[in-house]
Amino acid sequence: MGVPMVPGRLPVRTLLESGLIRGVNVRTIHSVNGDTLLERAPPSRASVSAVRSGAAYDVKEQLTSFAVVITSYNYRDFVVEAVESALAQTRRAAQVIVVDDGSSDGSDALLRERYGDDSRVMLISGVNGGQLSAFQRGVNAVHAQVVCFLDSDDRWGPEYLARLGELYDAREDVDFVFSDMRQFGQQDRAMKFHDRAVDLGYTAISTYVLTQWYGAPTSALSMRTSWARQALDLPNAFLRTWRLSADNCLVFGCSVLGAHKYYLPTGCVDYRIHTRNGWWSNRSPRIEYINKMNSSALIRHYADRIGMGPECIEFSKLEFMTKPNPTWGETKRYVRLVMMRRVAPWRKWERALNILRRGWKLRG
Fold it and tell me: What are the tens digits of pLDDT across the range 224-236?
């Protein structure tokens, strides 16, 4: 078994590369029932350069389209600020979708009063079902190529989508991008994966074996819409489990199912700390234990969907090779993986030393 890939993706790329499909820039998307479809893809590096130089005939055809999904539950005091930050982007989103998850504090009425006649905003409301349910309702309404998630108590700086767009426009091989965050409110500190941008390549084996979390809280997550749909295609039994912290479904799901991940520090995501944070204000050893157990079950579910099992650890080195500029921490993580293989000690060390050599050379 190799690096997990979504069925149908490589054959289409092979057709494109062979020249059998000409004149149309397309990529694959995958519906919930597994059917493979084609849609217009983000542009190549060359076409992005043409747009920036003014050489492109139709700029709109060259740029990745974005949808913003804002989910809200009883955050009347904050939700308007979140929506306004999405509308104030220098690179405009094709859709701004606000899902009110059965709020009882007047949020829904406030949103309809303020945005009911605003063509830029789509409002969705319903009975309270939890964060996973709200994610699903929001993504079901998306028709843009990339979906970005924003919690209704957070906010973005105006350049956030522009920064993401530069990457998605130039790198159609990148499926999932997460950013750094800055806490504000009751705390003031940075939250970041690394000091620089990191192309993480594939992360399925590291996630499956080590429960490694390659992502960020909701408001710093974005991904191509087809990947969001795959990750959120979950049985109803998961709705209760992931009423909170459903960003785990996006982070773990996209990793295990085979998304190509990238960390891009933007300095544009503000994460509000207050007494009513769904996750932050409820941290405890008990909650952490339950979340770890639920995450383990979630990862197994995704792995079962694609037939992934413990034997995948044999391909840890291959997964590491998909990372063009691994951090030293990532290098050590993959050394740990190859040392867990059930082979002769000399074979473990041989592969571990190969990883260390490459990681040291490329370390960041």
Answer: 999 999 999 999 9
Residue 8 has pLDDT above 60, yes or no: no
Which top CATH class is 62-305? Answer: alpha beta
At residue 29, the pLDDT reads 38
* Spacing of C-alpha 236 from chain mean position: 21
pLDDT at residue 24 tops 80: no
User: Contact 327/364 with Cβ under 8 angstroms?
Assistant: yes
Q: What is the pLDDT of residues 35-81, one digit of tens each?
A: 333 333 444 444 444 434 444 434 445 799 999 999 999 999 999 99
Q: Which of 326, 71, 114 is nearest to 221 (CA)?
A: 71
The average pLDDT across 213-219 equals 97
* Single-letter amino acid, residue 149: F
Instruction: Break the chain into its structural domains and give their ranges.
Output: 62-305, 310-362
Helix (H) or strand (E) holding 151: strand 146-151
User: What SS3 class is residue 30?
Assistant: strand
Listed residue (320, 305, 322, 317) closest to 347, CA to CA? 317
For the chain, what is the radius of gyration of the CA atoms? 21
Closest CA to 48 of 162, 157, 197: 162
Instruction: Write the burial class of residue 312 (CB in 10 Å: 0-12 exposed, 13-18 middle, 19+ buried).
Output: buried
For residue 154, which of 94, 87, 85, 104 has the smallest C-alpha distance?
85
SS3 at position 300: helix
